[in-house]
């Protein structure tokens, strides 16, 4: 299994606090020591850090914890390998270009025996996760228009996700830098922080942050994770089959597919603006 | 203009010494302060660091200088912007997946008014360099077989490169992690270090390395740059129109196209194993 972390914000925001909590689980407070990676969007560009080892004692992860990289969308993953060997090519998040934008993907779960339909995008490594990512992009490319609004892209993503969820565990983070799509089979929670900001304490490290001192009153910053990171805040737990599309720190579209995949008729789910 | 650095080695080798010299030119001993990036292959995986600012005073660049990341192929670039704004999306090296491998590209020069033929791969930023990279990949995808040996891939790359060279300055580094292709319009030099190893001194920083202490007698490590990095070694200067394909630290194929592009009949150039 693995753990996921994402951020959606309405102003460039660093991920130092949450990243510090998550990376402790990579070999210290958790067993996810087979790799870690994080991707930060900056405009249409993306910068990523990947390492095929434990994040808890990584010098590069330490640099990312203490060197604020500001972003409106970020995706992070720590890995405990099940499918695929421990190597750099199997380290999430995976990144591809589609329609002149970088798409970034991280996955928690396992789809035993998943086979992607042949297509343009091909996995480099041998994880089911990267094969899923390529499958999603191949479907989008052939079924969606490049100028499709988020509603239509979400419709395709929901349909694909509920199909994957019928085959196994599929907790998903996917972004094109503009929005962030999240899908939950069984483990996902979010928190939206906005004024009045309060302090918060990490579960996995003796670290407290006073968000009031770090933000302006207009900031809206949401964090999405497989497992809540703080011990003194209320996290909003996703239902099984729930998906949310985030932009600028808020949910712009959401819905629920049938539990554990449900029937095909549950999608497209009802949208809530 | 920009500066380029690449490495090809027969054993995983760090780039700390050369990278330290090059990054000084990013705002200290040289004017290339508009971004820097480096990509290290590790098996089929690649890890990259990109920043849209000066490398000379970057904390991330400092970490890369002092934290040995071992690789058999690496590509590095520091940028002085001409075409395209200063932003992360315009920062080399650019990376795309083709045939289940990551391809990495960095370019020095300028092709005013270059327009890529439409194709699958699209630039994310607005540099001529990234448009060139996408053009190369689109041609390879449609004209080469995925199982083509390096000789045939080189033939396509030489034909494309000499075409681009007729339109401007085109000094190129391109790799798929297996081999490294280099093409010189006007600025490129290489050095191959093997036993008996000697010390070397950087031009751009008061740094000396004793390669004897860092290597084994079987190591072969080649470094390719737009401008020699050391003051006390002999660098092999490329001729205009010269290309070399490197693998495991040695040249496996090379040739010369007509000066500044020459006629189309110069390609495919004569190969030398």
TrEMBL record, chains A, B:
The keyword Lipid biosynthesis does not apply. This is Class II glutamine amidotransferase. GO terms for molecular function: glycosyltransferase activity. The keyword Electron transport does not apply. Keywords: Glutamine amidotransferase, Glycosyltransferase, Transferase. Pfam families: GATase_4. Its EC number is 2.4.2.-. It comes from Marinobacter azerbaijanicus. Gene3D superfamilies: Glutamine Phosphoribosylpyrophosphate, subunit 1, domain 1.
